[in-house]
Amino acid sequence: MPETLQPDPKRWTALIFIALAQLMVVLDATVVNIALPSAQADLGISDGNRQWVVTAYTLTFGGLLLFGGRVSDLWGRKNTFIVGLLGFAAASALGGAAVNTAMLLGARALQGLFGALLAPAALSLIAVMFTDAKERAKAFGVYGAIAGAGAAVGLILGGVLTQYLNWRWALFVNIAFAIAAVIGAVKFVNEPAQGRNHSRLDIPGVVLASGGLVSLVYGFSRAESDGWASTWTISLLIASVVLLAAFALVESKVKAPLLPLRVITDRNRGGVYLSLGLAIIGMFGLFLFLTYYLQTVMGYSALKSGVAFLPMVGGMIVGSTQIGTRLMLRVRPRLLMAPGFLVAAVGMGILAQIKVDSSYAEVLLPGLILMGLGMGTAFMPAMSLSTHGVRPEDAGVASAMVNTSQQVGGSIGTALLNTLAASATASWIKDRAGAGGAKSQLLINESNVHGYSVAIYWATGILAIAALLAFFLVNAEVQNHAERVDGDESIEDFAIPVIAH
């Protein structure tokens, strides 16, 4: 039996640049959200087209992640990682230089395309480079902290760039991130040769999966703007079910599937994808409503509202790199994930108590800290388990699945919770407006805060369900040694870390 390869001596330096690339992808969405009002005014983007600045990115990113994951398996993770970085930088430059709406939307779609190559390649590179259980726990702790905190960091960076430069720098800043990550990747990232998949690309699978995921994400986007009962919304959601069902059928028949069903039918990986997707639904709702609350009700500037999220960022870093990493080698993953999601739910429940005149120190601060600690603690084992027991040649597509669950969860969360908030706000203001329909600013603020609170309560319940699913579905043992991969008796032929089954 071949000996297991020695760990790459440059792996920790490589992790810095892999994490930098992941940070760029994660914070891009919130950086652009903060800059969007300025971009809309500058380019004359209509209110109807405004949502497409965000949707063009999420559609291509979420829809093509499985394709990107499989490309990294076939072409090599390092190659895919570098191409994704260069493409993302070029698309960001195009968007920053945009002179009209179409140019900006096209650039955002290209960012999504190259992000779909980059994100799964980054995660699977960690999976194949860190083979020691303790080191792997630390590596995924760093990655989990960045993945969780990147959105909040984006709020701060977006506020600084928009306030002190202009909205175009919210896109141009990606060029610096990408160039630094490319230089680091070329010099320090070394991918083990054993993990390459030499089969052909499953074109029918690519078409069906991408079509199904795009229909799902777009369907929820239309639900947010047109309502759940609109013809467009219903048609798109039905189309997504049909396409994804056809995709599952095709994958069970073809010789070299885009997504081998063994990747998602494993109890632990399936539990991670499902529970993490639900948790992201709640988390995206929190960012959305607290950002509006801080700016429109509390009167915070874009920069100050970004800084207000820092306690959650700190909590995520502590939860991921200290609590999660230290306990991952001592307790079962579900005993980190389920309590982590529950602590986050408690924090969310505190944040649901917001009022028009709430104190930041009494309500928002404890809620944000608990949210960060909980999500950080749960994120780290979830990221690690996303490649639980996979064959090396499937590492990219398994990594893509955890990214897909986050993207789809984020899209569903934004649409679902925004709809719930809007309905609660409309009902509140209808019941309390005067006979003449007069609406004072105080009444408007109270109705908006009521809507935010209702949506955050729903997010609290969703996080609690995520905790239950993590506890009952994930049954992996303590992650302090390696064991059997899918369909084989030993991992010693493979340079990939796996979790005990």
Automatic annotation (TrEMBL):
Q: Which UniProt keywords apply?
A: Antibiotic resistance, Cell membrane, Membrane, Transmembrane, Transmembrane helix, Transport
Q: Does the keyword Oxidoreductase apply?
A: no
Question: Which residues are in the Major facilitator superfamily (MFS) profile domain?
Answer: 14-479
Tell me any Pfam family this protein matches: MFS_1
The way this protein sits in the membrane is described as: Multi-pass membrane protein
**Does tRNA processing count among this protein's keywords?**
no
Transmembrane region(s): 12-32, 52-69, 81-103, 109-130, 142-161, 167-189, 201-220, 232-250, 271-294, 306-323, 335-354, 360-382, 408-429, 449-474
Q: Where in the cell is it found?
A: Cell membrane
The UniProt entry, under NCBIfam families, shows: efflux_EmrB
List, alphabetically, the PANTHER family matched: BLR6921 PROTEIN (PTHR42718:SF46), MAJOR FACILITATOR SUPERFAMILY MULTIDRUG TRANSPORTER MFSC (PTHR42718)
Q: What is this protein called?
A: MFS transporter
> Which organism does this sequence originate in?
Streptomyces polygonati
